[in-house]
């Protein structure tokens, strides 16, 4: 099984099957607009701008589970990210990333890596075949992931 077995909804409500990203490397991140780590959006966008033409897509999944730091709607989160950080990578609907109501995609990501999501901005790197290859803790700065991303992009 790979992440291509899962689907989600974009912030605008559009259903997206993750197989739409087949052949691309992915950086999947649970995000929040009112978190001390929110400035990571700037570096996430920088990664996207740097590597999108080589096949990297950053996917942002707003989550309100940690400190209530994503209180608004998914559309409000997307607008905030665009306005304040110039985010152009895909933003998805709000979801839970752990616990009884955890979204199946995040259950798969954590089960595959053995990781526990402890806060906003946990990052999962996925190769072009849909295999989860690495988990990064929330405090890992996005630009620190460059060498891992470059290995996947070849």
Automatic annotation (TrEMBL):
UniProt GO molecular function: peroxidase activity
PROSITE patterns hit by this protein: GLUTATHIONE_PEROXID_1, GLUTATHIONE_PEROXID_2, GLUTATHIONE_PEROXID_3
Domain of life, source organism: Bacteria
Gene3D superfamilies hit by this protein: Glutaredoxin
Keyword Oxidoreductase listed: yes
Cited Pfam families: GSHPx (PF00255)
InterPro entries, per the entry: Glutathione_peroxidase, GPX_AS, GPX_CS, Thioredoxin-like_sf
Keywords assigned by UniProt, alphabetized: Oxidoreductase, Peroxidase
Family: Belongs to the glutathione peroxidase family.
Name of the protein: Glutathione peroxidase
UniProt organism field: Cohnella soli
């Amino acid at each position: 099984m790979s992440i291509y077995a899962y689907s989600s909804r974009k912030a605008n409500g559009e259903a997206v099957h993750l197989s739409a990203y087949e052949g691309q490397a992915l950086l999947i991140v649970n995000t929040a607009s009112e978190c001390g780590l929110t400035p990571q959006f700037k570096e996430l966008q920088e990664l996207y701008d740097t590597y999108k033409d080589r096949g990297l897509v950053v996917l942002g999944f707003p989550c309100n589970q940690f400190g209530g730091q994503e209180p608004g709607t998914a559309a409000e989160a997307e607008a905030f990210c665009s306005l304040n950080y110039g985010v152009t990578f895909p933003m998805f609907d709000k979801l839970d990333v752990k616990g009884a109501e955890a979204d199946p995609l995040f259950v798969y990501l954590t089960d595959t890596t053995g990781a526990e999501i402890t806060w906003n901005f946990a990052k999962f790197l996925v190769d072009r075949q849909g295999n989860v290859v690495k988990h990064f803790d929330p405090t890992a700065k996005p630009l620190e992931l460059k060498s891992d991303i470059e290995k996947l992009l070849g």
